[in-house]
Amino acid sequence: MSGLYIALAVLGLVVTTVLTRSFFFLTREPLPLPAWAERGLRHAPMAALAAVVLPGVLLDQGQWPSGPWDPRWVATPVAMAYAWWRRDMLGTLLIGMALYGILRWWGA
Asked: Do residues 99 and 69 touch, judged by C-beta distance below 8 A?
């Protein structure tokens, strides 16, 4: 493939991305959403987070881990409990990753 072809492809993707993401800003008046759509959009961040995180926690290279003491299966509930208790994202990440690192280092 030529450099010109790649440059045009990238430019096309940039234009498409900018137009689709800025569509709501290009209108003069706000676009009203139905109430059901607004209620549904409240759950979008949690759904996206679950879609990204859960496969990484539950599966190892696309397979179930061999035992119940997989470091991810131990660190995740601890981090979730800390997040519920403190409502602190940075602390949750630090606690979860520290415990995961220790358990991996320890060989669990």
From this structure: no
Residues 83 and 89 sit within 8 Å (Cβ to Cβ): yes
SS3 call for 20:
helix
Query: What is the number of residues in the chain?
Result: 108
Global confidence as pTM: 0.58
CA dist 101 and 1 (Å) reads 43
Residues near 99 by beta carbon (within 8 Å), at least 6 away in sequence: 71, 74, 75, 78, 79
pLDDT tens-digit map of 15-50:
999 988 887 777 888 878 899 999 999 999 889 988
